[in-house]
Amino acid sequence: SELCRAEYPTWARYVLWSMAEIALIGADIQEVIGSAIAIQILSRGVLPLWAGVVITASDCFLFLFLENYGVRKLEAMFAVLIATMGLSFAWMFGETKPSGKELMIGILLPRLSSKTIRRAVGVVGCVIMPHNVFLHSALVQSRKIDPKRKSRVQEALNYYLIESSVALFISFMINLFVTTVFAKGFYGTEKANNIGLVNAGQYLEEKFGGGLLPILYIWGIGLLAAGQSSTITGTYAGTIYN
């Protein structure tokens, strides 16, 4: 955002700012609704969607107050949420027992029919978030690095490369867990056309049932962690735009 301010005239800056804010609001709406659905699942329907939206919006700002105690505290909270999300979806993955052979074939030799292209594009859209460009730039600036020392700059770049690679790998694994669970249960069935975020938990419960912990609640915990972390990062990125 600072680079845009330095390089572009006033009218262009406002156009870019408006586009970025609109895109961020669109992404945040999905994330807040996802978190609200998770709260409804975990409360067994006691809390309606509107209450979940209010809770998500409120605790989002409360969590952002952690930045007053240092960026590291905020990053630690994100790490907890992402770990919760990853463990929940990994648990679901283990509960459904997908075929390892078919999974590897799908990863190494991916094939898409005309019916699945729209969903594949949706997955790409979920992973690529434009506001993260601004967020990551701000996080880089939060590190104290002497730009006059090339060795320190190169060292920082190496760490950022490792950090980005690990983040992308974790994102890939989480998406793999979720996609595999639903593919195992519903690929090629009529139900596949009816599954959405609102009823996904119900379909999982009907297909895979209980276990040590019912899969519906595992899904709810993972969805809540995903919704909270995404909403907080989106809101935090919005503060950086300004």
Helices, by number, come to 10
Which spans of ≥5 residues are poorly predicted at pLDDT below 50? Answer: none
Rg, rounded, reads 20 Å
* Main pleated sheet: none
Q: Shape, please?
A: globular
Beta content: under 5%
**Which structural class best describes the helix and strand composition?**
mainly alpha
Tell me the helix content. Answer: over 70%
First and last CA, distance: 8 Å
SSE series: HHHHHHHHHH
How many beta-strand runs?
0
User: Roughly what is the average pLDDT, rounded to an integer?
Assistant: 81
| Whole-number tally of structural domains | 1
Note down, in words, how this protein is organized.
- Helix 7 packs across helix 10 (215-241).
- The chain has helices at residues 2-7, 10-42, 49-64, 71-96, 100-108, 117-127, 131-141, 150-186, 200-208, 215-241.
- The protein starts with a helix and ends with a helix.
- The chain is globular.
- The model has no long low-confidence stretch (mean pLDDT 81).
- It contains ten helices and no strands.
- It has one domain (2-241).
- The longest helix has 37 residues, at 150-186.
- It has 242 residues and is an all-alpha fold.
